[in-house]
Amino acid sequence: MRTLILLGLIGLAAQLVDGSLGMAYGVTSSTLLLTAGLAPASVSATVHLAEIGTTLASGASHWRFGNIDWRVVGFMAVPGGIAAFLGANVLTASGEAAEPVMSALLLLLGIYVVWRFLRLPDRRPSFSGKVPGFLLVPLAMVAGFMDAIGGGGWGPVGTPTLLASGRIRPRKVVGSIDASEFVVSLGASAGFLLALGHTGINLPFVLALLIGGIIAAPVAAWLVRLMAPRILAVGAGGLIIFTNARTLLSIDAVDAVLPAAASAIILLAIAALWAAALTWVIRKELAEKRAEASLPEERVEA
């Protein structure tokens, strides 16, 4: 019972982060289940079954608060679901072999996202234009495949890429990624059930993660609507950098060269820089709000 309560709390916390930053539910939950001794395929299957419910609740909540760009969902959901189905059926050691390469790419993308939103001029960012469909479809296929073989990847791949485009408001990036993830979870779950049957899938674990995630979904959708775009983007970008840096530092080849203390220092430095960047953009947003409030009414209306 204690394990199930802990899983429920992890599901709640993971969905709170995922629903407000567009990633981390699968990665967080998968990490915990792996430490509990489950096989990688069983872990991914358990997480994706839970995500059918959590992503449905999250998508509905984001729709309620107006956080979804349905054009993005239309282009990404089905290709992502098909790729997740294929990824579930080919989950082997190759998935682990691809992890360092994907983590390195995501790390660079996270750095770009943070840099892009930190260097904005002294005005709030405007978001215009559309991400072309011929880019959204392959993005969805890569993200869906990585999500199935890694137990989490739809958000870490899709969210920073859409944020980096600068064309979609961050809250709509998060809402669209979360809403389309429902189809991805369906595809991955169907693939795992076809490949594994019911063996290795711990239904109590699924229910515990599901309940925690459903409770957190509407709270996260409400929070993301309140966050300023720059704060949301730097928060998400910092999370991408930190999680992928941790993945790269845990690789055997790196671990053999760097002592554990050095890896810990690097992660602490990244966390400190992330906190400093968030503090800076929060102060910048507050300063701009104060400046706008002090403008004459005629200028504000203009």
TrEMBL record:
Q: Where are the transmembrane segments?
A: 29-50, 70-88, 100-118, 203-224, 231-251, 257-282
Query: Is Chloroplast a UniProt keyword of this protein?
Result: no
Q: Provide the protein's localization.
A: Cell membrane; Membrane
Chief subcellular location: membrane
Q: Which Pfam families is this protein grouped with?
A: TauE (PF01925)
InterPro entries given for it? TM_pro_TauE-like (IPR002781), TSUP/Inactive_protease-like (IPR051598)
A GO CC annotation recorded here is: plasma membrane
**Assigned keywords, A-Z:** Cell membrane, Membrane, Transmembrane, Transmembrane helix
Task: Kindly give the membrane topology term recorded for this protein.
Answer: Multi-pass membrane protein
Which family is it part of? Belongs to the 4-toluene sulfonate uptake permease (TSUP) (TC 2.A.102) family.
Q: What is this protein called?
A: Probable membrane transporter protein
Organism (species): Rothia koreensis
